C-alpha cells in the first residue's frame, strides 16, 4: 500500500464530517467568502476585482459541491460547468460573473508585419 493510499484511507472518515459541516453552515461559509472578497477588493483598491470575483465564484462552487456531495439527485457529484459570459452569480451576490478570464499565452512572434501601434525597430 502506497503513501497516497494510506492518506486516502485515513482522510476518508473526515471527508464525510467536512461535507456534513459544509451542509449545515453553507450560508455562513458563503457569507464569509463574500466578506473576505470585499475586504481584499477594498485593500487592493479594485485593481484585481475580476480575479477576486472569479476566485470567489470558484470557491463557492467547490464548497457547494462538497456540501451536496452526499445528496441524491441529478447534479450530485457532477461537475459544475465553468462560468461564461452572461451567466449570473448566485442570488446572494446580486451581480453577474465576468467573462471567463483564464490565462492565455502571449502571441507568438511569427516574423510577420508588426502591429500598427508597435514601436519602430531599433538597428
From TrEMBL:
Compositional bias segments (type: Low complexity): 86-112
Pfam families in UniProt: MT0933_antitox
Biased composition (Basic and acidic residues): 22-50, 61-72
Biased composition (Pro residues): 113-123
Annotated region (Disordered), positions in chain: 1-123
InterPro entries per UniProt: Antitoxin_Rv0909/MT0933
The protein's name: Antitoxin/MT0933
Organism encoding this protein: Streptomyces chartreusis NRRL 3882
Amino acid at each position: 500500500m502506497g503513501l497516497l493510499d494510506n492518506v486516502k484511507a485515513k482522510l476518508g472518515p473526515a471527508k464525510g464530517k467536512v461535507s456534513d459541516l459544509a451542509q449545515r453552515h453553507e450560508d455562513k461559509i458563503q457569507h464569509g467568502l463574500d466578506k473576505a472578497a470585499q475586504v481584499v477588493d477594498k485593500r487592493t483598491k479594485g485593481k484585481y476585482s475580476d480575479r477576486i470575483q472569479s476566485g470567489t465564484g470558484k470557491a463557492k462552487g467547490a464548497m457547494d459541491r462538497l456540501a451536496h456531495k452526499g445528496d441524491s439527485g441529478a447534479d450530485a457529484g457532477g461537475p459544475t460547468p465553468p462560468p461564461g459570459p452572461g451567466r449570473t452569480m448566485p442570488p446572494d451576490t446580486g451581480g453577474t460573473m465576468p467573462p471567463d478570464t483564464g490565462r492565455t499565452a502571449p502571441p507568438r512572434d511569427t516574423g510577420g508585419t508588426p502591429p500598427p501601434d508597435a514601436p519602430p525597430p531599433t538597428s
